[in-house]
Amino acid sequence: MKRLSIWLAAPLLAGLAHADYRLETVAEGLEHPWSLAFLPDGGMLVTERPGRLRLVDADGALREAPVAGVPEVFAEAQAGLFEVMLAPDFADSGLLYLSYAYGDITANNTCLGRARFNGEGLSGGEVLFCASPAKRGAAHYGGRMALLPDDTLVLTLGDGFDYREQAQNAGNHLGSLVRLSLDGRVPDDNPFLGDDRARPELYSIGHRNVQGIVYDDQRDELLINEHGPRGGDELNRIQPGANYGWPLTTHGVDYTGARITPFRELPAFTPPLLHWTPSIAPSGMALYRGDAFPDWQGDLFVSALAGQQVRRLIRDEGRVVDQQVLFEELGARIRDVRVGPDGYLYLLTDHADGALIRVVPAS
Amino acid sequence: MKRLSIWLAAPLLAGLAHADYRLETVAEGLEHPWSLAFLPDGGMLVTERPGRLRLVDADGALREAPVAGVPEVFAEAQAGLFEVMLAPDFADSGLLYLSYAYGDITANNTCLGRARFNGEGLSGGEVLFCASPAKRGAAHYGGRMALLPDDTLVLTLGDGFDYREQAQNAGNHLGSLVRLSLDGRVPDDNPFLGDDRARPELYSIGHRNVQGIVYDDQRDELLINEHGPRGGDELNRIQPGANYGWPLTTHGVDYTGARITPFRELPAFTPPLLHWTPSIAPSGMALYRGDAFPDWQGDLFVSALAGQQVRRLIRDEGRVVDQQVLFEELGARIRDVRVGPDGYLYLLTDHADGALIRVVPAS
């Protein structure tokens, strides 16, 4: 298997070993798979954007019939079923969370639902949250989730593409992160609660389209990546109540080449930890904690769509000091990257005939 | 004498009495007078923008010869000698502060100087601060000063007109307020000191052209007014370290009519207490504490250039609840408004043949 070691502008880390790996296809024939979750029994759940939840059994077999009981989703362009995430007490409760687009082309937005999974289907589904207002079009939904150690969850939301100025308006949910209790209520320490004009669910604002999120428990840091326009993809460290500046600050320009703002950074806004200009189109994100690849310990992995790669981010005291481009040999848009309980990386390729791929040590 | 009572959109305060007043010309033949200070002996110092400091004796006579020892100023268009302010210990020390433009048309900015006044001339002049960087052109200097109760002073600075984006850059002084000790040093509790990239003198940023400032000791509030572009003049309450949003937020548009920003307010920026749209072009500002006009107790008075008036702002718990247009009968651009130790208002008209006018009760 070809080993990639395309090193970017940052200086090489002296003595850094390059891990040898092998790519294994676990499942094929997934239609635009978007996210996956690891079940306690060794199986996996995989979402497909058109609105199906698929089960991969512990033996690696993809069940043909999708899991029943998934909420009705609005599936078009970027819209559809997004993330599946197990509740912290899933082993007992069977509860899982799904994020998805709901509505129609004239009025839709990102919603969050919860249901009970019995190994076959979903039951007891309830809608916990829908981003407001509903908006026109089928782009920029966010839709990723992370659990925080205080038993709250953070859901990422997009700016709806045609509504970018609304990312600066705390009176709606466009272009933000929201934080909810596990049963969908507003935690009483949410950062915008003191502002009568702000939505109480908000956790941070000024985002464009956040499609990767990771909570680093060792550093107690919530990290997200977000799509910039043309250039200006960002990795951000989330501070509750902070404003990340879109569309008033960006390292990118409009798809037309037009300047969106004269500002790359401003004192009022939290700057990114790093930006990718030109864009890689970051999608999922994972933090490596595992035994299979000792050299990757503590590194971030960011999957990329247009970039057709996974970007490994090597950190030192939280600062990204080096980057490595991985898995370009797949020649695929990569929608998600996860670390399994086995310490292997799992990738989802974003294609009509998409695949679930496992990265294992070469030897 | 004509009594004006042009009430604006805000509801009338029930039972509010309209003060009867008389306008008296104290001195004429002042060339674009900009500010005045009341001397302990009953006299006054008046700056003229071309660079002269004039003395009005206690008997009201304007001395023909200007006060000697004024610093060299760059005088052109809006540039020149701005404010004169006495030190808190002036009666003992004779120290006074002058703000002024320094440089030439290609490179100039607002400076602050201090000198000793002996009743005739200035001596021991020293330059305490010059805004950086020097910029081209002759517009938007700020130049007003206020004393704070902790023996620091705040100096207002403009965005230099052609440099409006720099009002968002804490790495320079354009479009900001700065706070200095009375001998020109940086107070060790200035709000931007923790930011290595920021200028240590900064007190607030995101201003366009602040030409009125008042410290309200009863409410412990620092208030400023600033020129908007076309529309969007503002009254702001200053919080140390805050960003007032120019040019990312404004209720005005460009002089051409072009939109500067889609945002009137944003969560990241401190909104104005009120805005004047269309513009009145606010200049000086005073807080009325005196016995001559009991009805005006605690009101703010804002002089206006294009508006050719003084705007009286009636407050309730710090909120402006009503406004009254005064002194339009002068038909003059008014550069400054002050409250004398006698409780009378003093106005300076902004003309080549400008006047110092005193407002006294009609009866």
Q: What do these coordinates show?
A:
The structure is a homodimer of 363-residue chains. By secondary structure, chain A is an all-beta fold. The longest helix of chain A is centred in the N-terminal third of the chain and has 4 residues, at 90-93. Chain A is globular, with a radius of gyration of 19 Å. Chain A contains one helix and 24 strands. In chain A, β8 (107-117) and β9 (122-130) form a beta hairpin. The first copy, chain A, is 1% helix and 41% strand. Chain A has one domain: Neuraminidase (6 Propeller), CATH 2.120.10. In chain A, the strands form six sheets. The first copy, chain A, has a five-stranded antiparallel β-sheet, with no helix packed on it. A four-stranded antiparallel β-sheet of chain A has the order 2-24-23-22, with no helix packed on it. Chain A has a four-stranded antiparallel β-sheet with strand order 6-7-8-9. The model of chain A is unreliable at 1-17 (pLDDT under 50). The A-B interface holds A 165, 168-170, 195, 198, 205-206, 243, 245, 248, 262-263, 266-269 and B 165, 168-170, 195, 198, 205-206, 243, 245, 248, 262-263, 266-269. Chains A, B: InterPro entries: 6-blade_b-propeller_TolB-like, Glc/Sorbosone_DH, Quinoprot_gluc/sorb_DH_b-prop. Chains A, B: One of its GO terms (molecular function) is oxidoreductase activity. Chains A, B: It comes from Franzmannia qiaohouensis. Chains A, B: Residues 30-358 form the Glucose/Sorbosone dehydrogenase domain. Chains A, B: Residues 1-19 form the signal peptide.
